[in-house]
Amino acid sequence: MNKTLVNQRFSTELLRVLGMSIVFLSHFLDTVRMPRGAWFTIFHAAGPQLFFALSGYCLSLRYRELPSWKDYYRSRFLALMPLYYLTFLLFYPIQAFLYGNPFYGGPFWKLVFTLTASDMYVTFFYIPTYAVIGEWFSFIILLLYAAFPLLRRLMQRHSLLTSAVILAGFLANWKFRFIPITPEASPFTGLLSFWGGMMAQKYMPLMEKRRGVSAPLCAAVCVGIFLAPCPKFFCALALAVFGMTFLLLILPKESPLGTPVLRFLAGNSYSFYLCHHFLILRAAALGGPLCASRPGMLALCAITAAISLLCAWCINQLYAFLIRRVRSNHA
Hints:
Elements: H1 3-7, H2 9-31, H3 38-62, H4 69-99, H5 111-115, H6 119-122, H7 137-176, H8 187-209, H9 211-227, H10 232-250, H11 260-267, H12 269-286, H13 294-329
Helix pairs in contact: 2-3, 2-11, 2-12, 3-7, 3-8, 3-10, 7-8, 8-10, 9-10, 12-13
């Protein structure tokens, strides 16, 4: 693992767990029909954007010098897709049983959407698929990972010009909706957050030297956008990029608080993300009466989170076992 990334393990793991918690809570509250307000719009959108920004930051740390394109794409594919496919194979029979139809997504050729992790995303366009795990932003993450080598080169040679172009693309899509879906799920939005994370990594050494100025400035940007008469979604973007940068500046890179519990949560965060929404939907269907009271809702939320984490751990253990068997057979 990249030495610099290891040295920032505590702060990045804490942010990963924070993002995972925001995504889980927003989906749970959305599923149980919690009354919405401006705060929910910000909260709901901040989770995915934080993951995009943190991905840009961590990839930039890991790949200060890019390997060959073949090695890069191979490593990114192996980091994401085998576990994605395994989780789908585990949950698809359950979903097929619940629907009472193994072809609930239509013709089997639509599994191509699952193979590209885009099955949740294309549902925005009212296309039936075999979607059962993950979220719409699985597909955006894949697009951003695919674009990273090009973005890294642009960062090194034309960072300010590229920043202006990406920001202009985001604002133009916000105004004219080139892609007719919610702006939160637009690739333009994901790209802006991802690029913001890359920029945060590039200027982090400079900001750390002037932490007394840069940390309050990041906090002031978040507060200023929140108070400004602008769409509340912009607050989510500010929290994702500038809030992440603020926390990276004030958190220790390593800490005695970096307990095995934190590493356990961060290590299972991807599997947790893949299975949590399916389990939330099942929990809401079975435990709906509990949501009539606040204590009941909190209990259901805690139980669902615990079951999701247990499932994530079991999936990771099964995946690790399969990897060991494959390697032993090829030894």
